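Field reference: sequence -> structure
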Amino acid sequence: MLRHRGRHPAAHAREWHARALRALSPGQRALLEALVPADHSYTPDFLTPVPRPGESMPEVAARIAATPEEEVDYQLDIAIRGRRVWPDVLALHRSEAAYERWRRPMPPALATVAREGGAAVATAAATAMEALFASVLAPDWPRVRAVLDADIGNRADRMAAHGAAAVLDDLGERMRWTGTELVLERAYSGIIDWADEGVLFVPVTTHTGPVLFAAERPHTPVLFYRARGIGALGERPAGPAESALTGLVGVTRAALLTTLDAPASTVELSRRTGWSNATVSYHLGILLRAGLVDRHRRGRVVRYARTDLGTALAVDRRYGLPARRRST
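Structure field:
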């Protein structure tokens, strides 16, 4: 989601939103803003189908478009005032009046498409989502994937070393782990008991605020949370210089090189970037052998620092300047 709900979005999200304003047609932009409101906590789950390994955006869009009409209609009914009230949804709220206050008016852009039924909404949303990805996110997708993969690796390492509680306790605000249950603080109340299904944890780079939860049978429940290390996405302006250095040393090593403004240990770099210690150590080893970083030990701590060559590459890349060869 590129729009924020009462919070200041990260720099990369602001840039993506600006791109979307320029690239999407007014109709596509209005529809996505109607489906993903900045002033309401609910977004229809059909927009974010359960991820599948190796799936391309056109394949995701095809799954969105193929969402059963009754599923789309049900999800629109949940939060749109004036549409059907479902007893199971009403039961989650303190009263019918509280539920009606929680619902929101039907946005005009959504009303136009919804008159043709849920299938039309799914098709139009899929087309807009695919256009959004192609024109806004695709240029940065390798870097985004690097951040997401690093977050998953970091949390897997922590879970293996310290157990599930070490991961769940800091996943996001307004969520806690009791030892037997995940509890999310919401304006409504309900119990999801899908012991045989488990829960899928999905990191995202644009979300601010409480952990998001999607639970729609027969799909696996999903938790969406803010990934670690997203600062790396906003530190470096996109441009020819960035592409050149990324192509030279790779996305992860380029990020580490620009992060090393001051000497830092593997642990410190892991905290800054969100990548696991093993990932940081591996890529630092490659930068070390290439002569782009150096390392110094003080007691038990080993700190890495950029060499003159590494600094020249990082500074030239940051400001979009071509590297210059010194005359002799």
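Note: The first strand starts at residue 175 and ends at 177.
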